[in-house]
Amino acid sequence: MINAKDVVKNAEKGMDNVIKDLRREFAALRTGRANPALLERVMVDYYGTPTPLPQLAAISVQEARVLLVQPWDRNVVKNVEKAILKSDLGLNPVVDGTVLRITIPPLTAERRNELTRLARKIAEEHRVAIRNLRRDANEQIKKAEKAEGLPENDSRRLQEEVQKLTDRYIGQVDQLLSEKEKEILEV
With helix as H, strand as E and coil as C, how does 81-112 read? Predict the structure, then answer.
C-alpha cells in the first residue's frame, strides 16, 4: 500500500528544491550590486576543459559595485578574462597583476525593465514546476485510492494537504520575485 505521508513528503522535498533553484537563478541575475553568484555560471577554458569559474578562483565583493576574482593558478588569468568577456553578463574585467577587478555598471532603465521581465519569466517557470509536483502527487494519491483502496476521505484530505503545500510554495516564489523586482528597480 502507498504510504500517504511519503507522497506529501516527496512533494514537499521537490517543492523545496524548486525554491532553492529559484534562489540560485535569481542570485545570478545581474542587478546594480556586486554579487559573487553572478559569476557562478561562467565557464573558463582550463587547459582544454570547460570549468566553472568558482572552481578556479576566489570571488569576493571588494566594494558595493566591485567584484574581485583571484585565480589560484596565475596562468589562467587571461582565460578567466576571456570567459567573463564572452559571458552574456556585459561585464568588463580589468586585469591587475594576478587578480581581476570587475566593476558592475549601473543599470539603464531599459535593462532594468528587461531584467524584471526575465525575473517574472523565471518565477513563472518555477511556479509551473511546483504545480507539476502537485499534479504528480495528486495522481499518486488517486492511484492509491483506486488500486489500493485508500478511503475517499483520506484521499481528499491528502489532496488538500498537497494543495496547502502548493499554495505555500507558490507564495514563496511570489515573495522572492517581489524582492528581486525591488532589488532590480532600486536606483
Answer: HHHHHHCCCCCCEEEECCEEEEECCCCCHHHH
Host H or E run for residue 63: strand 57-63
Q: pTM of the prediction?
A: 0.72
Mean pLDDT score across all residues of the chain = 87
* Among 11, 27, 26, 10, residue whose Cα is nearest residue 168: 11
Q: Report how far apart, in Å, the C-alpha atoms of 163 and of each of 55, 77, 110 are.
A: 40, 50, 38
What's the grid cell of residue 27? Answer: 542570485
Cα 84 from Cα 18, distance rounded (Å)? 28
Q: Is 69 exposed, middle or buried (0-12, 13-18, 19+ CB in 10 A)?
A: buried
Of the candidates 177, 183, 143, 140, the residue with the CA atom closest to the CA atom of residue 5: 140
* Rounded percentage of the chain residues whose pLDDT exceeds 70: 96
Angstrom distances, CA of residue 66 to CA of 36, 78, 182: 10, 19, 21
In the numeric block, the cell 573558463 is attached to 44
